Amino acid sequence: MNRLKHILLAVSLIAVCASAKAQADFEITPESACAGMTIKVKNTTGGNYQLAKFAFGDDLEAYGEELQHIYAKGGTYTVELTVLMDDGTWTAPKMRSILIGEKPSVEVSDNEKQGIITATVSDGASIKWYCNGAEMKSNASSFYYKESGEYKAVASMSNGCKDSASVSVTYTDISGRDITSIKVRNNVITPGVMDGINDGLAIEGLPFEANCEVQVFSKKGKLVYTNLKYTNTDGFVGRDDDGNDLPAGTYYYVIKSWGRKGCTGFVDIIR
Questions:
Q1: Where are the alpha helices (DSSP H) in the chain?
Q2: pLDDT tens, 90-139?
Q3: Which residues pair with 236 in a beta bridge?
């Protein structure tokens, strides 16, 4: 009987010691972030131990109780914590996942000669423009500016990650100058014939010193064609921005170029 009691006591002590052994645990703040942002990990393991080791899932490891880490690229990473106990053994690893969103890239440039600001962003990013801190209506990648100051482009991804870039410009009003008007050679085009006569909308004097911008609208005012660097050899030939043939009929154009008087008018497509 006494032997049985000793055995049961020994088993109980082993169970108590096993249950008293610390189990690794930690917190991640925040639980999701964007590439380039700082995340924090905090060891919350209870009991006595000697050392805590974090592995961040991107081939980097570090020792400590509270650490900061920055992921250079987007993706889902597994953060792993192991703890060195007083008896020289390591705990089983505790693992948690963290989602890192890809951050967009954005660059802003100013062509002072043409009076155009352009933002170059990574694929899939949308743009919001701000002029001297005030949000603008334009979300185009390029536009003519008519006000001096700082223009900032904020690029956003669908995952919520953002980045921004800005440029300071000085606007020069040329409206009072004696400048040359833009003139269109023809108001009829016959695409498909390709006989070298009225194949596309032709502008006199191209190429200009600055880029020539052409927009074409339907009768209902829908924008069907845009070209910020128009040339007569690569211009409007009766197709929309997606390359689809437009129906025969009358369309309206708006043409601009820095340093010249812009013009508007109509062009008939005959098929």
A1: 2-20
A2: 999 999 999 999 999 999 998 776 678 889 998 889 999 999 999 998 78
A3: none
Contact (CB, 8 A) for 80 and 57: yes
For range 232-243, the mean pLDDT: 94
Within 8 A by CB and 6+ apart from 2, the residues are none
Joined together, the tokens standing for residue 79 give 């953060």
* Residue position matching structure tokens 């085009």: 189
CA 17 to each of CA 23, 81, 87, 118: distance values in angstroms, whole numbers, following the listed order? 13, 22, 12, 67
In 3D space, the residue among 227, 220, 228, 230 whose CA is nearest the CA of residue 251 turns out to be: 220
Question: What pTM, to 2 d.p., does this model score?
Answer: 0.54
CB 138 within 8 A of CB 117: no
Asked if the model's pLDDT at residue 18 lies above 50, the reply is: no
> Cβ–Cβ contacts within 10 Å for residue 61, how many?
11
Which residue in this structure is represented by tokens 């650490």? Answer: 67
Q: 112: number of CA atoms within 13 Å, CB side?
A: 8
| Contact yes or no for 153/105 (Cβ under 8 A) | no
Residue matched to tokens 């128009």: 230
Please give the structure tokens belonging to residue 15: 């169970």
Chain-centre distance for alpha carbon 26: 32
Q: Which residues of 223-237 are buried (b: 16+ CB within 10 A; e: fewer)?
A: ebbbbbebebeebbb
Amino acid at 60: L
Q: What is the pLDDT of residues 199-231, one digit of tens each?
A: 999 999 998 888 899 999 998 889 999 999 999
The C-alpha atoms of residue 163 and residue 223 are separated, in whole angstroms, by 29
Parallel/antiparallel/unpaired status of strands 49-55 and 61-63: antiparallel
Instruction: Please give the Cα distance from 180 to 262 (Å, whole number).
Output: 9
DSSP states of 14-58 as a string? HHHHHHHS----EEEESSEEETT-EEEEEE---S-EEEEEEE-SS
